[in-house]
Amino acid sequence: MLNIQSHVSLKPHNTFGIDANARYWVEVANEDDLKTVLQLTDFINQPKLILGGGSNVLLCHDFDGLVVKVAIQGINVSREDDDHIYITAGAGVNWHELVQFCVQRGYAGMENLALIPGTVGAAPMQNIGAYGVELEQVFESLTAVHILTSERKTFTHAECAFGYRESVFKRDLKGQYIITSVTFQLNKRPIFHTRYGAIQETLTEMGVSDDRLSIKAISEAVIRIRRSKLPDPSQIGNAGSFFKNPEIPKIQFDTLKDQHPDLPGYPMGDDVVKIPAGWLIEQAGWKGYRSGDAGVHARQALVLVNYGNATGDEILLLAKKVQESVHDKFGVTISPEVNVI
């Protein structure tokens, strides 16, 4: 049964821990309830904010409309063939729980994406990725409901138009659909990705040799790395990586490399090189910076943090200062990965 509440605090529902309020709030546990909410006369013209785990938003003010918390659960095997197994998960399923579900059953492809905060429904919106793997590599399709018409639509891989930390849902279809379930294509025979970041080094520290390599070992290595570098949102408010890693022309990278020999770079093809935003921010002197309760994490400069009572505006002001500083020093623009509301 639907329970629409008014004047609800969003502080427990965003990992930054920002104290903002929703004029109206509702949690939906299935697609039918979602459609019912969208068709209610009193709310048809209300602005709507869709929340999953609240791990990729920065709330800069109260939301004067309806916040819809998508809590659709369920993980099941939808079909399989000789090489793949297809898993469908509700949009409200915790992402890490889905990864562990697959790893424990030997379904390969998601292991590098372990411990990413958030829910399944939010994952394709920004094409989440980590340690050399992006969601689009295991994505098959999704279902979504149109906010205005309540029409249900299935989106294929091509229709999602994935890019680096983005999709059609952050561009042409922004604010038009609510994702209700996602289907993933996992491999029965694993393809290991161990060259990115400190995965290989961590596997060695764990005593995992090449002949004992498994998706479970890779998942455990990724979890160990993330826990050592990234703050726990239950302890310090944050939304993980605040900025995207910028991609710049190779000619610009070569010039910067001459000036800064330690600058890391990852060739992306088409004479484009991706560089770590965290390295740029750290070199610009921001690592460990704090102003009031807004700060840059002491172990990972890519993460902005709320030490207690920072407002969204204070975090956003800090983000803009970091962007300006990086651009002044390197001539490189870094863009937020987090959605500013």
Give an overview of the whole structure:
Belongs to the MurB family. The chain folds into 3 domains: 5-70, Uridine Diphospho-n-acetylenolpyruvylglucosamine Reductase, domain 2; 75-209 and 217-225, Uridine Diphospho-n-acetylenolpyruvylglucosamine Reductase, domain 3 (2-Layer Sandwich), CATH 3.30.465.10; 237-340, UDP-N-acetylenolpyruvoylglucosamine reductase, C-terminal domain (Uridine Diphospho-n-acetylenolpyruvylglucosamine Reductase, domain 1, Alpha-Beta Complex). The chain is built from 8 helices and 20 strands. It has helices spanning 31-39, 95-104, 157-160, 199-205, 215-229, 250-259, 277-283, 312-330; strands at 5-9, 21-28, 48-51, 57-58, 63-70, 75-80, 84-90, 129-130, 133-134, 139-146, 152-156, 177-187, 237-241, 247-249, 266-269, 272-274, 290-291, 294-296, 303-306, 339-340. Helix 4 (199-205) packs across helix 5 (215-229). It is globular, with a radius of gyration of 20 Å. The chain starts with a strand and ends with a strand.
